[in-house]
Amino acid sequence: MRKLSLVLLAAAASLMGGCAKFPANITTDATRVIFRMTVRGTIRQDYVYIIPIRVSTLLSPTDQGPIPVVAFPNANGFVDGHVDYFVVWTPDTQQYTLYKFDDTSLTLYTAIGVPINTVDVTPGSSTTIGFELSLQQILGSATSWDQLQSIQANFLTMNYRLTAGASASGRIIDCLGNTNLQSDLNEPVTIPLATSGTYDNARFNEIEPATSDCPDPDLDISDWSIEVQRQ
Questions:
Q1: How far apart are the C-alpha atoms of 78 and 76, rounded to whole Å?
Q2: Between the CA of residue 43 and those of 9, 29, 39, what are the distances in Å?
Q3: Is residue 1 a contact partner of residue 210, using CB atoms and an 8 Å limit?
Q4: Which in 3, 82, 94, 226 has the greatest CB count within 10 A?
Q5: Do residues 171 and 160 touch, judged by C-beta distance below 8 A?
Q6: DSSP characters for 47-70?
C-alpha cells in the first residue's frame, strides 16, 4: 500500500489540479473535506468511480453507512445502506458532479453542483481522483454546517452499474475492505468533523489490503484519504 507523505497530505488542497466555480452560497468559514482515491492501474473513462457520503449530527452513527451493491434487487445499481450524497467522476469536461439522493430508498437522485476543487484526471494515465467539498454543500437534514458531527463515506469502483438487465456474473467491484472476503465488503468509514485531521488507510489499520484484492488494476483501490480542514 502506497502511503501519502506528510508533505502531500499537508498540501492536498494546493495540489487540486482543477477548480470549480465557487458556489455563491458557500462561505469561506465552513469546514471543508478533501477526498482522494488511488488505483493500482489507471483511471478508465468507461469505468465507474463513485464516492458516496452520509452526513450526520451524531458523532458515531450506529446504523449502516454507504456500502456497494453486489446483487439484485437494488434501486440504483451502485450503492446501498444509508447515503445522502455521492460524487461521481466521468470523463466529460466537468469530470466531477455532486448528487443528492431524493428518497431513502436511493432510487431518485439529483445533480446539485460540483466540488469546490478537483484533481484533474487524464483517462488511461492518471491514477488518482480527488475533490474538495464544503460542508455547506452537504448539509443533509441539518440547517447549518456546524451542526454536523461526522460523515460516513466509502470509495466505490466498478466496471458497470448493476442495473436491471445487466449481468452480475461479469461485474467487478472494489470498495473499502477486502473484497476477497464477503464479510469485509461492508466497511464504510466514519470521520469526525470537530477538528482538522487526515484519515487514511494506515489510520484505519489497513482497512484496504496492502496486496491486490481486485482482479482489475484499474478498479483496485491502492490508497485513499479523507482530510478534514476546519477553517
A1: 6
A2: 21, 33, 7
A3: yes
A4: 226
A5: yes
A6: SEEEEEEEEESSSS--S---EE--
Cα–chain center distance at 161: 16
Q: Where are the domains of the chain?
A: 6-229
Helices vs. strands in the chain: H and E counts, helices first: 1, 16
What type of residue is 51? Answer: I
181-223 pLDDT per residue, tens: 877 888 999 999 999 999 999 999 999 998 999 999 999 999 9
95 bridge partner residues = none
Is the pLDDT score of 22 beyond 70? no
CB distance 119 to 18 below 8 Å: yes
Give the pTM.
0.88
Report how far residue 188's alpha carbon sits from residue 177's, in angstroms, rounded to the nearest whole number.
8
Residues 3/219, Cβ–Cβ less than 8 Å: no
Q: 48: closest CA among 147, 166, 181?
A: 166
